[in-house]
Structures are given as structure tokens and as C-alpha cells.
Amino acid sequence: QVRLVESGGGLVQPGGSLRLSCVGSGFTFSNYAMTWHRQATGRERELVASITPTSGTINYTDSVKGRFTISRDNAKNTVYLQMSSLEPEDSAVYYCKAVNFLQPRRTYWGQGTQVTVSS
Fold it and tell me: Strand 32-39 relative to strand 92-100: parallel, antiparallel, unpaired?
């Protein structure tokens, strides 16, 4: 059974930091690119960051560049999103997604973790 389980969300003050984790199981994690997405209330889900299977290529959406860092540990089947200098506009449900590198239509989603940035 394929699972992606996110954790690490919560309430943080503006300017604070959080680290999200996403653990995969039931598939060969190292064959998948991993992405983080977020969806704020009333808005469409957006891609935040992506990382290829061997971490060779990393991309970020413009609004998080310089503040967020995506990384992965294939030995632990885990992808991380380190978020710093958080702003209220970063409040959203954050989802991780696995995309098969050779068969991009084969994808899996996690259930999401809530991040709220508020004073």
C-alpha cells in the first residue's frame, strides 16, 4: 500500500520557522521526484518546490525563494521542506507529492499538513 505521510505543520508567528517532513512507503522512493504543494483557503493548489530523485535539480516558486529549502534523504524515504522567515501568506495546507521520474503519470499524494502563520 502506497503512503505519503506529512508532518511538522502547526502554528508559528511571522518570521518563524518550521520543517515539514514527508515519509513515503509502498513504492521505490528513490525513483520518484518529490514536490511540495500548498493550498490556501479559497485558492488553487500551487507548486512550492520540487527535487529530482538524486537531488540534482531543485526548483522553487518565486514567492519562497531564499526562504524555503527542499531536501531529501532516500535512505529514510523522506523529503523535507525547511521554511524560514514565514509570512501570513504562507498559511496553507501543505502536501507532498511523488512523481515517477520515468512515468510522470504515476503520482501519489499525501494527506496534507496545516501551516498557520499568525501572531
Answer: antiparallel
What is the C-alpha separation between 117 and 35, in angstroms, rounded? 21
Amino acid at 64: V
Beta-strand relationship, 10-12 and 113-117: parallel
Task: Record the cell numbers describing residue 71, joined without a space.
Answer: 531536501
Cell numbers 517532513: residue: 21
Contacting residues for 42 by C-beta, under 8 A, at least 6 apart: none
Q: Of 105, 118, 116, 98, which Cα lies nearest the Cα of 37?
A: 98
b/e burial code for range 62-84 (CB count within 10 A of at least 16 → b):
eebeeebbbebebeebbbbbebe
d(CA 94, CA 111): 9
* C-alpha grid cell, residue 85: 522567515
Could you read off the pLDDT of 42-83 as tens digits, one per residue?
999 999 999 999 988 999 999 999 999 999 999 999 999 999
Q: What whole-number distance in Å separates Cα of residue 19 and Cα of residue 9?
A: 8
